[in-house]
Design brief:
Blueprint: E1 2-17, E2 20-35, E3 41-49, H1 66-97
Antiparallel strand pairs: 1-2, 2-3
């Protein structure tokens, strides 16, 4: 089983937008997946733009948490985007566990 950890603590903000300050418009995500059985892991880094046109549910920057930013990031990328990121990580881990190719050195013992 792969456990995924999302870190969305790094963001880009507009210093002011209308009546608000520090309005997040871009979230930088770091997603790590670790296979609980093999302990192999893989990660992906990227960013997700947010729609800042609707400030109805605006939260002051000082009240934001990583969990809030993760929820916004995942909502903006949609279920397909989240699934794609986690699938790439899972494939990378599978490739580490069962490599399609190996590099060996002639004359050295192979495990």
């Amino acid at each position: 089983m792969i456990n995924y950890t999302w870190n969305c603590k790094t963001v880009d903000v507009y210093p002011t937008k209308g009546e608000y300050t520090n309005v997040i418009y871009n979230i930088h995500y770091y997603v790590e997946g670790e296979d609980s059985e093999s302990l192999y892991s893989s990660e992906l880094i990227g960013n997700q733009l947010l729609n800042t046109g609707n400030t109805e549910n605006f939260k002051p920057f000082s009240e934001l948490t990583n969990e809030t930013a993760v929820a916004w990031c995942k909502a903006a990328m949609g279920e397909h985007g989240v699934t794609n990121i986690e699938s790439v990580i899972a494939k990378n881990i599978e490739d580490e566990i069962n490599p399609a190719s190996l590099m060996l050195v002639i004359g050295e013992e192979v495990e």
